[in-house]
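B., you asked whether I could sanity-check this one before it goes into the benchmark set. Here's the sequence:
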Amino acid sequence: MDTFLPVSRLPIQGENIGLVPGENPIVDIPGGKGNNQAIACAKLKKKHHHTSSSSPRIVFLGQFGHDEAGTSILRSTLVSHGVDISHCSICSTAPCGRGYVFLQRNSGHVSAIVSGGSNMLGWSKWEDSSFNDYDSKDPFHEYLESLMQGAKCLLLQREIPEYVNLKLARYAKKHNIPIFQDVGGEDRPITKEMLSLCDYIIPNESELRRLVYSLNGETCLDDDNALESAVRGARILQTYGANNILVTMGNKGSVLVDTQGQIVYQNAMTLPKRCHVVDETGAGDCYRAAFAMAFVEGLTLHDCMKFASAAGTLAVTKEGAVPSIPNREDVDHFLEENQRQSSSNDISLLSSRGGSQEKQNDAFPFIFGSRLNSMKDRPDLWPHPLMSVRDLVKRQSTIQDLGCVDFNYPQHFQDWTPEEAKALLDEYGLTAGAVCLRYPSKFVLSAMNHPNEEMRREAIQITKKAADVARVLGADEVVVWSAYDGYDYPFQVDYDEKWNQLISAFRECCDEYPDIKWSLEFKPTDENTRFFTVPSTGAALLLVQKIDRPNMGLTLDFGHLLMAGENPGQSISMVGNKLFGIQLNDGYSRLAAEDGLMFGSVHPTMALEVMYQLWKINFQGHIYFDTFPQRSDPVKEAGYNINQVKRLYKAALLMDEMGIRTCMQNHDAVGALNIVQKVLNHPL
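And here's what the prediction gave me:
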C-alpha cells in the first residue's frame, strides 16, 4: 500500500521539510511491483472478443498481510482487474507492505522508502521446503505444477525473497517457461545461478550499476554516455552467465543486448500531445509487464520494446502506480497516433561488434491534418451522403496516416456539440489539431478591429469561444484568420488604430487562455480585403513581438507566402520558435490567386527547403494541408500530400551530409542545386 508525499524537493540530511502548500498525503493507494505488474499484464493483454477463454490468464502469486484494511483493498483491486489470486495466501505474522513515496511536483520524479511486510516475510513454508532435486513426488513439486501448468511466461521481481524466485525459476527453466526478472524491489546481489536461469534480466540504470558492482566491484555507467555504459554493463553480466539483458533508461530509451551480442535500441517516445510528466511511479513496472505481454503474443523483440515504451510513456502522465496503468486500447491508439507501426521507425539495430552505435532514426516527427471542407469535393467518389460535418470527418478518417482534424469555428459546430465531435474523433482514432476561426460574413468590415465597438467585442468573444471549443476537443491551438481584417483603398482605414486594436484583442485572449496557443495566419490579399492588416511575415512577426505573450505565435501558409512574394523557407527561418502552425499547398503565384494545389507540385525545390527549415528550427506543431481538390479525389490527394512530405523530409535530412551548408556559406547556387537534384533522386 503506497502513501504519496507531494514535495517540492527531497530533504537533505538532518532537514525537515513540509509538503507542497495546500496538498495532503495521498494514502492507501495499491502498489508494489508484483501487484503493479500483474494488473498491467491484465490491462495490456490483447482482448479477444470471440471467446473469453482465448484471452491469457494472469495469475498472481503473493502474500497478503494480516491487516484487514490493506488486504481488502489490495485483494479487491487485483480481482477487479481480472487477476487470478487463488494462489495467494495471508501472512499471519506481518501486515501488508508499505511504500512511502516522495513525489517531486516540479518534475514528477519519485523516490521511495519501502517496508517489505508480508510479501517479504510471509514465505516460511517455501523456505522450509527441500524442493531442489525436482522430485515429482515432492508435494511442493505438485504445488508448482498446479501453479504454473500451461504458463507462457514467469515474471519475477525482488520485493519477495531470493529463495522464492530461485525455486520458481528452477521449475520454469526445466519446463521451458520464459523467465523475466525485474531487478527492482530490493538492493541485493544476484546469484550466478539466478543470472543463468533467467531468459531476460531487466534492470534500470541504477540497478544495473549495483548488479555489476556486486559481481566485480566495477562501476559501469557513465551518465554522459548512458547507452554505451548500459551496453558495457550488460556485457559484464553476460560474462557471469546472464542471457538477454534489457536495460531501461527513462527518457533516454531502452537497450537490449541479446545472447548473440546483438544490440537493439528503442528511443524514448514523445509524450502525447498536451500531456506532461506527472508521476513516474510504476512506469518501470508497466514497461516490464508490457514487454512480457508482447513477448507472449509473439511480437518481435523490436516490437516488444516499442509496445513497452509506449505503455511506460503513458504511465507517467497520471498519478499513482495502478491508476496510471494504461489499457490496451490506449497503447494501441498511442502507437498509431505517433505513426510508429513499423519497428524501423523508432527502433534501430546497433553494431554487435563495437562499431558505430549511432542510431539511424528515420521516424517522421509530425502528425498530419488536412482541410476538412475538402472532403465535400468529388462526392461522386464517396459511397455515402456528405450532409454534415460528421460525414466529412468519417471520409477524412479513411486517409492513411492522417492523425488529426482541424475544425473551423463556428461553421463546423452548427448542428452538434464539441463533446460529440470529440467522441467521434475518439471513435476513429483521431485527435483535434487546432480550431480555426472563420468569422461570419456579418463582420465584413473587420472582426477584432471592427469600426464598431460592439461588433469588435462580439468578434473577440467568438474568438474566445473557439478556445473553449479547443479545450473540449483536447486541442491546444486556435488559428485566427479573418477574411475581413483589411481594406481595399488608400485612406479607407487608420492603420495605427487597426494595428493597436489587434494587439489589444490578442493580448486579452492570450491572458485569459494561457493554456491555448494563439496563432495568427496572415494572408496578404484576398477578394474580401485587397490589403490585409498584417500583409507579410515580417509584419506578422512584428505584431507577435508587440503582443509580447509567450502563447502568441504564427501559422504560415505556403500559398499565402507565395502570394506575398516571399520565399517560404526564409519566412520559416525568420519566425523560428514562434511558428506554431504550418499549412502546406502549392500554386502558380498569379495575382491574388490561391490555387491550393498539391504540395511540391509546382515549386518542388521550395517545398524541399520548407522541410529542411522545419527540421532546422525544430518545429513542434502538426502538418496541415490547405488544398482545394475540386477535380481530384480528396482522399487520394491528401494521401499524396502525406507521402510527398515524408519523401521531402527524408531528402532534407540528407542535405547536410551532402554539403549544403558549405554551399550556403559560399553562396554557391550551382552547388546547392546539384545537391537538391541528388537528394530528390536519392533512393529513400
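One thing to flag: Residues 267 and 603 are 35 Å apart (CA to CA). Otherwise nothing jumped out at me.
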